[in-house]
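Problem 12. The chain below contains 327 residues. Write out its predicted structure in C-alpha coordinate notation.
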Amino acid sequence: MLAYPAFALLKENMPEASVVAFIPAYTKEMAEACPWIDEILIDPSPHDDWRSGFALAEHFKKEHFDAVITLYSRARVGMAAACAKIPYRLAPATKLAQVFYNHRLKQRRSRSEKPEHVYNEDLVRFFLEQHKIPLNKNPQPPFLQFNHQETARIKAEFCIIKNINPKHALVFMHSGSGGSANNLSISQYATLAKHIKSTHGHTFVLTAGPGELEQAKMLSKHLFPIPHVIFHSTAGLRSFAEHIQFASLFISGSTGPLHIAGALNVPTAAFYPLRRSATALRWQTLNRPENRLSFSPDEKDHAAPGLNVNLEESADIISERFLMRSI
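Solution.
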Protein backbone atom coordinates (compact mmCIF):
# COMPACT_ATOMS: atom_id res chain seq x y z
CA MET A 1 0.00 0.00 0.00
CA LEU A 2 2.87 2.38 0.74
CA ALA A 3 4.06 1.95 -2.85
CA TYR A 4 0.84 3.45 -4.25
CA PRO A 5 2.18 7.05 -4.25
CA ALA A 6 5.32 5.92 -6.11
CA PHE A 7 3.21 4.24 -8.79
CA ALA A 8 1.03 7.36 -9.00
CA LEU A 9 4.01 9.68 -9.29
CA LEU A 10 5.55 7.57 -12.06
CA LYS A 11 2.42 7.04 -14.14
CA GLU A 12 1.08 10.61 -13.79
CA ASN A 13 4.38 12.05 -15.05
CA MET A 14 5.03 9.30 -17.63
CA PRO A 15 1.52 8.46 -18.87
CA GLU A 16 2.91 6.80 -21.99
CA ALA A 17 4.91 4.28 -19.95
CA SER A 18 3.72 0.76 -19.27
CA VAL A 19 4.03 0.29 -15.51
CA VAL A 20 4.36 -3.32 -14.38
CA ALA A 21 4.22 -4.22 -10.69
CA PHE A 22 6.31 -7.22 -9.62
CA ILE A 23 4.60 -8.51 -6.48
CA PRO A 24 4.00 -11.55 -4.26
CA ALA A 25 0.70 -13.31 -4.95
CA TYR A 26 -1.02 -12.29 -1.71
CA THR A 27 -0.97 -8.60 -2.70
CA LYS A 28 -2.53 -9.18 -6.13
CA GLU A 29 -5.99 -7.81 -5.33
CA MET A 30 -4.64 -4.51 -4.06
CA ALA A 31 -2.30 -4.19 -7.04
CA GLU A 32 -5.27 -4.76 -9.34
CA ALA A 33 -7.13 -1.96 -7.54
CA CYS A 34 -4.27 0.52 -8.12
CA PRO A 35 -5.21 2.79 -11.07
CA TRP A 36 -1.55 3.53 -11.89
CA ILE A 37 -0.51 -0.07 -12.53
CA ASP A 38 -0.94 -1.34 -16.09
CA GLU A 39 0.17 -4.93 -15.60
CA ILE A 40 0.95 -7.29 -12.75
CA LEU A 41 3.80 -9.79 -12.65
CA ILE A 42 3.48 -12.33 -9.84
CA ASP A 43 6.72 -13.52 -8.28
CA PRO A 44 6.81 -17.20 -9.32
CA SER A 45 9.17 -18.22 -6.50
CA PRO A 46 9.24 -15.66 -3.68
CA HIS A 47 11.89 -17.55 -1.68
CA ASP A 48 14.96 -15.33 -1.36
CA ASP A 49 17.68 -17.66 -2.64
CA TRP A 50 20.12 -17.60 -5.54
CA ARG A 51 18.67 -20.55 -7.45
CA SER A 52 15.25 -18.94 -7.77
CA GLY A 53 17.04 -15.77 -8.90
CA PHE A 54 18.23 -17.46 -12.11
CA ALA A 55 14.69 -18.65 -12.85
CA LEU A 56 13.43 -15.15 -12.18
CA ALA A 57 15.92 -13.74 -14.69
CA GLU A 58 14.35 -15.89 -17.41
CA HIS A 59 10.97 -14.54 -16.31
CA PHE A 60 12.21 -10.95 -16.70
CA LYS A 61 13.82 -11.59 -20.11
CA LYS A 62 10.44 -12.47 -21.60
CA GLU A 63 9.07 -9.06 -20.60
CA HIS A 64 11.78 -6.98 -22.36
CA PHE A 65 11.80 -4.30 -19.66
CA ASP A 66 13.56 -0.98 -20.31
CA ALA A 67 13.96 -0.14 -16.64
CA VAL A 68 13.45 -1.53 -13.17
CA ILE A 69 12.96 0.50 -9.98
CA THR A 70 13.34 -1.70 -6.93
CA LEU A 71 11.65 -0.16 -3.90
CA TYR A 72 12.68 -2.92 -1.51
CA SER A 73 16.07 -4.27 -2.48
CA ARG A 74 16.81 -7.98 -2.33
CA ALA A 75 19.78 -9.77 -3.84
CA ARG A 76 17.65 -12.30 -5.73
CA VAL A 77 15.66 -9.61 -7.57
CA GLY A 78 18.75 -7.52 -8.26
CA MET A 79 20.64 -10.48 -9.65
CA ALA A 80 17.68 -11.45 -11.83
CA ALA A 81 17.38 -7.91 -13.23
CA ALA A 82 21.11 -7.84 -14.01
CA CYS A 83 21.11 -11.30 -15.60
CA ALA A 84 18.09 -10.30 -17.70
CA LYS A 85 20.18 -7.32 -18.90
CA ILE A 86 17.54 -4.73 -18.10
CA PRO A 87 19.30 -1.53 -19.29
CA TYR A 88 18.36 0.78 -16.41
CA ARG A 89 18.36 -0.69 -12.90
CA LEU A 90 17.71 1.51 -9.84
CA ALA A 91 17.62 0.55 -6.16
CA PRO A 92 18.48 2.02 -2.74
CA ALA A 93 22.26 2.13 -2.21
CA THR A 94 22.11 0.70 1.28
CA LYS A 95 22.30 -3.07 0.90
CA LEU A 96 24.69 -5.62 -0.55
CA ALA A 97 22.20 -6.13 -3.39
CA GLN A 98 23.13 -2.70 -4.77
CA VAL A 99 26.03 -4.33 -6.67
CA PHE A 100 23.51 -5.63 -9.20
CA TYR A 101 22.20 -2.15 -10.02
CA ASN A 102 23.79 0.42 -12.31
CA HIS A 103 21.91 3.33 -10.68
CA ARG A 104 21.61 3.82 -6.94
CA LEU A 105 20.06 6.31 -4.55
CA LYS A 106 21.51 6.55 -1.07
CA GLN A 107 18.81 5.90 1.50
CA ARG A 108 19.10 5.11 5.20
CA ARG A 109 15.67 3.72 5.88
CA SER A 110 16.78 2.13 9.15
CA ARG A 111 17.09 5.64 10.59
CA SER A 112 13.35 6.17 10.00
CA GLU A 113 13.87 9.84 9.12
CA LYS A 114 11.05 9.85 6.55
CA PRO A 115 7.81 7.95 5.94
CA GLU A 116 8.25 4.74 4.00
CA HIS A 117 6.09 6.02 1.15
CA VAL A 118 8.37 9.07 0.78
CA TYR A 119 11.45 6.85 0.48
CA ASN A 120 9.60 5.03 -2.32
CA GLU A 121 8.62 8.29 -4.03
CA ASP A 122 12.23 9.53 -3.79
CA LEU A 123 13.35 6.65 -6.00
CA VAL A 124 10.79 7.58 -8.65
CA ARG A 125 11.77 11.26 -8.46
CA PHE A 126 15.41 10.24 -8.95
CA PHE A 127 14.43 8.12 -11.96
CA LEU A 128 12.44 10.97 -13.54
CA GLU A 129 15.26 13.44 -12.93
CA GLN A 130 17.82 11.14 -14.53
CA HIS A 131 15.58 10.79 -17.58
CA LYS A 132 14.99 14.57 -17.70
CA ILE A 133 11.26 14.12 -17.29
CA PRO A 134 9.70 17.18 -15.62
CA LEU A 135 7.76 16.61 -12.41
CA ASN A 136 4.51 18.26 -13.49
CA LYS A 137 2.14 16.28 -11.31
CA ASN A 138 2.32 15.37 -7.64
CA PRO A 139 -0.67 13.10 -6.82
CA GLN A 140 -2.43 13.61 -3.49
CA PRO A 141 -4.79 11.48 -1.35
CA PRO A 142 -6.90 9.52 -1.78
CA PHE A 143 -4.65 7.05 -3.54
CA LEU A 144 -7.36 4.39 -3.61
CA GLN A 145 -11.06 4.87 -4.36
CA PHE A 146 -14.01 2.66 -5.15
CA ASN A 147 -17.28 3.63 -6.80
CA HIS A 148 -19.20 5.77 -4.30
CA GLN A 149 -22.63 4.42 -5.31
CA GLU A 150 -21.40 0.87 -4.90
CA THR A 151 -19.84 1.76 -1.54
CA ALA A 152 -23.15 3.25 -0.37
CA ARG A 153 -24.95 0.06 -1.44
CA ILE A 154 -22.46 -2.16 0.42
CA LYS A 155 -22.77 0.02 3.53
CA ALA A 156 -26.56 -0.06 3.51
CA GLU A 157 -26.57 -3.83 3.05
CA PHE A 158 -23.97 -4.25 5.81
CA CYS A 159 -26.00 -2.16 8.28
CA ILE A 160 -29.15 -4.16 7.53
CA ILE A 161 -27.43 -7.53 7.90
CA LYS A 162 -25.65 -6.46 11.11
CA ASN A 163 -28.72 -4.60 12.48
CA ILE A 164 -26.75 -1.35 12.89
CA ASN A 165 -28.46 1.99 13.51
CA PRO A 166 -27.96 3.75 10.13
CA LYS A 167 -27.44 7.09 11.90
CA HIS A 168 -24.46 5.79 13.87
CA ALA A 169 -20.87 6.52 13.00
CA LEU A 170 -19.11 3.26 12.15
CA VAL A 171 -15.87 2.95 14.09
CA PHE A 172 -13.81 0.10 12.67
CA MET A 173 -11.45 -1.41 15.24
CA HIS A 174 -8.89 -3.91 13.99
CA SER A 175 -7.18 -5.69 16.88
CA GLY A 176 -5.28 -8.16 14.70
CA SER A 177 -1.67 -7.70 13.70
CA GLY A 178 0.73 -9.22 11.22
CA GLY A 179 3.30 -9.36 14.01
CA SER A 180 5.78 -6.87 12.54
CA ALA A 181 5.07 -4.31 15.27
CA ASN A 182 3.82 -4.40 18.85
CA ASN A 183 0.12 -3.75 19.21
CA LEU A 184 -2.37 -2.84 21.91
CA SER A 185 -3.61 -5.82 23.90
CA ILE A 186 -7.25 -6.91 23.71
CA SER A 187 -7.97 -5.37 27.12
CA GLN A 188 -6.35 -2.11 25.99
CA TYR A 189 -8.53 -1.98 22.88
CA ALA A 190 -11.54 -2.53 25.14
CA THR A 191 -10.46 0.27 27.47
CA LEU A 192 -9.97 2.60 24.53
CA ALA A 193 -13.39 1.73 23.09
CA LYS A 194 -15.14 2.35 26.41
CA HIS A 195 -13.77 5.89 26.58
CA ILE A 196 -14.55 6.92 23.01
CA LYS A 197 -17.48 9.33 22.72
CA SER A 198 -19.50 10.64 19.81
CA THR A 199 -22.08 13.33 19.23
CA HIS A 200 -24.65 11.24 17.36
CA GLY A 201 -23.85 7.72 18.54
CA HIS A 202 -21.50 5.12 17.14
CA THR A 203 -21.17 1.39 16.61
CA PHE A 204 -17.84 -0.42 16.70
CA VAL A 205 -17.12 -2.79 13.82
CA LEU A 206 -14.58 -5.33 15.08
CA THR A 207 -12.75 -6.40 11.95
CA ALA A 208 -10.93 -9.69 11.50
CA GLY A 209 -9.02 -11.12 8.58
CA PRO A 210 -7.93 -14.74 8.14
CA GLY A 211 -6.82 -16.21 11.47
CA GLU A 212 -8.00 -13.18 13.48
CA LEU A 213 -11.60 -14.09 14.30
CA GLU A 214 -10.84 -15.36 17.82
CA GLN A 215 -9.22 -12.03 18.71
CA ALA A 216 -12.32 -10.16 17.55
CA LYS A 217 -14.52 -12.49 19.59
CA MET A 218 -12.38 -11.92 22.68
CA LEU A 219 -12.64 -8.17 22.22
CA SER A 220 -16.39 -8.49 21.75
CA LYS A 221 -16.70 -10.12 25.19
CA HIS A 222 -14.99 -7.10 26.75
CA LEU A 223 -17.25 -4.54 25.04
CA PHE A 224 -20.72 -5.56 26.19
CA PRO A 225 -23.04 -3.55 26.34
CA ILE A 226 -21.34 -1.05 23.95
CA PRO A 227 -22.92 -1.30 20.47
CA HIS A 228 -20.64 -3.40 18.29
CA VAL A 229 -20.60 -6.09 15.62
CA ILE A 230 -17.95 -8.47 14.31
CA PHE A 231 -16.97 -8.31 10.65
CA HIS A 232 -14.99 -11.39 9.64
CA SER A 233 -13.61 -10.56 6.18
CA THR A 234 -13.41 -13.78 4.18
CA ALA A 235 -14.01 -12.52 0.62
CA GLY A 236 -10.51 -11.20 -0.04
CA LEU A 237 -8.61 -7.95 0.38
CA ARG A 238 -10.59 -5.95 -2.16
CA SER A 239 -13.88 -6.73 -0.44
CA PHE A 240 -12.31 -5.81 2.91
CA ALA A 241 -11.11 -2.51 1.41
CA GLU A 242 -14.56 -1.78 -0.01
CA HIS A 243 -15.98 -2.09 3.50
CA ILE A 244 -13.21 0.03 5.03
CA GLN A 245 -14.09 2.85 2.62
CA PHE A 246 -17.39 3.52 4.42
CA ALA A 247 -15.83 3.56 7.90
CA SER A 248 -16.19 6.81 9.84
CA LEU A 249 -12.92 5.98 11.60
CA PHE A 250 -10.39 3.13 11.50
CA ILE A 251 -8.47 2.25 14.69
CA SER A 252 -5.64 -0.28 14.80
CA GLY A 253 -1.98 -0.94 15.35
CA SER A 254 0.56 -0.62 12.55
CA THR A 255 -0.74 -3.28 10.19
CA GLY A 256 -1.85 -3.81 6.59
CA PRO A 257 -5.55 -2.88 6.93
CA LEU A 258 -4.52 0.42 8.53
CA HIS A 259 -2.62 1.31 5.37
CA ILE A 260 -5.60 0.37 3.21
CA ALA A 261 -7.66 2.83 5.27
CA GLY A 262 -4.96 5.45 4.82
CA ALA A 263 -4.87 4.97 1.04
CA LEU A 264 -8.67 5.45 1.02
CA ASN A 265 -8.22 8.71 3.01
CA VAL A 266 -10.44 7.30 5.77
CA PRO A 267 -9.76 8.91 9.19
CA THR A 268 -7.31 6.74 11.14
CA ALA A 269 -6.10 6.47 14.71
CA ALA A 270 -3.02 4.25 14.88
CA PHE A 271 -0.92 2.91 17.74
CA TYR A 272 2.80 2.44 17.15
CA PRO A 273 5.61 1.05 19.33
CA LEU A 274 8.58 3.19 20.33
CA ARG A 275 11.05 1.05 18.36
CA ARG A 276 12.87 3.17 15.75
CA SER A 277 12.21 0.78 12.88
CA ALA A 278 8.47 0.86 13.60
CA THR A 279 7.81 4.53 14.40
CA ALA A 280 4.70 6.52 13.52
CA LEU A 281 6.79 8.64 11.14
CA ARG A 282 8.33 5.68 9.29
CA TRP A 283 5.00 3.87 8.85
CA GLN A 284 2.83 6.94 8.39
CA THR A 285 -0.49 6.33 6.65
CA LEU A 286 -1.31 7.85 3.26
CA ASN A 287 -4.36 9.88 4.27
CA ARG A 288 -4.33 13.65 4.59
CA PRO A 289 -2.79 15.05 7.82
CA GLU A 290 -6.17 16.13 9.18
CA ASN A 291 -7.42 12.55 8.77
CA ARG A 292 -4.72 10.79 10.77
CA LEU A 293 -3.75 10.49 14.40
CA SER A 294 -0.90 8.44 15.83
CA PHE A 295 -0.06 7.40 19.37
CA SER A 296 3.16 5.95 20.76
CA PRO A 297 4.55 5.27 24.24
CA ASP A 298 6.37 8.13 25.96
CA GLU A 299 8.92 5.67 27.24
CA LYS A 300 10.05 2.10 26.65
CA ASP A 301 7.22 -0.42 26.79
CA HIS A 302 6.87 -2.55 29.89
CA ALA A 303 7.22 -6.32 29.68
CA ALA A 304 3.42 -6.65 29.91
CA PRO A 305 1.47 -7.21 26.66
CA GLY A 306 0.40 -4.11 24.77
CA LEU A 307 1.79 -0.60 24.57
CA ASN A 308 2.46 1.82 27.41
CA VAL A 309 -0.02 4.46 26.18
CA ASN A 310 -2.53 6.62 28.10
CA LEU A 311 -5.71 5.20 26.59
CA GLU A 312 -8.21 7.57 28.23
CA GLU A 313 -6.30 10.55 26.92
CA SER A 314 -6.00 8.91 23.49
CA ALA A 315 -9.75 8.25 23.42
CA ASP A 316 -10.47 11.90 24.24
CA ILE A 317 -8.21 13.09 21.41
CA ILE A 318 -9.76 10.61 18.94
CA SER A 319 -13.31 11.54 19.95
CA GLU A 320 -12.67 15.26 19.71
CA ARG A 321 -10.96 15.02 16.31
CA PHE A 322 -13.30 12.65 14.54
CA LEU A 323 -16.56 11.95 16.39
CA MET A 324 -17.57 14.92 18.54
CA ARG A 325 -18.80 17.06 15.70
CA SER A 326 -21.88 17.73 13.62
CA ILE A 327 -22.68 15.15 10.98
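Discussion. The chain has a mean pLDDT of 93. Students who got a different answer should revisit the alignment rule from Section 12.3.
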